[in-house]
């Protein structure tokens, strides 16, 4: 599979260091709304929709993790960016880890949130893909949002619940299902020791999808890894606890100078 030209949004000073933000399964560039403005004070911010999501093309499956990494390389090439910081959550974090291991010359510093190097059982992802292909992404939207945020947060923010379910439901079925299959077949455990980019691994303390031991296992196997566990946050921890996570991202990407 050749790379596709993904939909992207660029903000921040043209001469600033570049940071790429990569979304989770079933989301779009909007999942980074809580971080974008603050990051743009320090960086040239490139948000993009993973293939099959949002405004990006929906090539026929199957996809694999290298296809998603290839899309990032093509995006960087199109922007004439040789090396960038990379921040990814869940599927976006998986993309970032593969990119940093496979193309180390393209990744400066790395932040991975609420993700894993291997998410088993594979059958669960194949089953979800089958459900979405048969019934559409809306069929899983309610259950997915219940994992994205803690119950108290959803109760206090019904508009966020509704908007999040709508974003998932609008995700093309083939794109969502094919990215489920990326996760089913992905195994990055042998990649981890090869990642030289200084990496901050952020876990949501209440994340049922990728609980803190997943991020601890990542941080422990990297050449230069550090773990941050954020209380009162589930899978979309960046959206639920931006006041803790946004400064941590900026501090890591600036080498502790901010």
Blueprint of the fold:
Layout: E1 8-11, E2 18-22, H1 33-40, E3 44-48, H2 65-78, E4 84-89, H3 91-102, E5 107-113, H4 122-135, H5 138-148, H6 151-156, H7 158-170, H8 173-185, E6 199-204, H9 212-221, E7 225-230, H10 237-240, H11 242-253
Helix pairs in contact: 2-3, 4-8, 5-7
Task: Explain the overall architecture.
The protein is of the alpha/beta class. The chain has a domain at 8-118 and 188-253: 3-Layer(aba) Sandwich (Rossmann fold), CATH 3.40.50.1820. 45% of the residues lie in helices and 15% in strands. The chain has eleven helices and seven strands. The protein has helices spanning 33-40, 65-78, 91-102, 122-135, 138-148, 151-156, 158-170, 173-185, 212-221, 237-240, 242-253; strands at 8-11, 18-22, 44-48, 84-89, 107-113, 199-204, 225-230. A seven-stranded mixed beta sheet has the order 1-3-2-4-5-6-7, sandwiched between helices. Strand 2 (18-22), helix 1 and strand 3 (44-48) form a beta-alpha-beta unit. The longest helix is centred in the N-terminal third of the chain and has 14 residues, at 65-78. The radius of gyration is 17 Å and the shape is globular. The termini are far apart. The mean pLDDT is 97.
Give the tags.
45% helix; AB_hydrolase_fold; Rossmann fold; 7-stranded mixed beta sheet; 258 residues; 3-oxoadipate enol-lactonase activity; 3-oxoadipate enol-lactonase; EC 3.1.1.24; 11 helices; alpha/beta
Total beta strands: 7
CATH architecture group name of the domain at 8-118 and 188-253:
3-Layer(aba) Sandwich
CATH class of the domain at 8-118 and 188-253: Alpha Beta
Strand content: 15-25%
Remind me, CATH topology of the domain at 8-118 and 188-253? Answer: Rossmann fold
In the predicted model, the low-confidence regions spanning at least 5 consecutive residues are: none
Number of helices: 11
CATH superfamily of the domain at 8-118 and 188-253: Alpha/Beta hydrolase fold, catalytic domain
Helix content: 40-55%
Q: Going across the biggest sheet, name each strand in turn.
A: 1-3-2-4-5-6-7
From the spread of the alpha carbons, the general shape counts as globular
Cα-to-Cα separation, first versus last residue:
40 Å
Give the SSE string: EEHEHEHEHHHHHEHEHH
Mean pLDDT: 97
For the sheet with most strands, the description reads: 7 strands, mixed
| Estimated structural class | alpha/beta
Please give the radius of gyration in angstroms: 17 Å
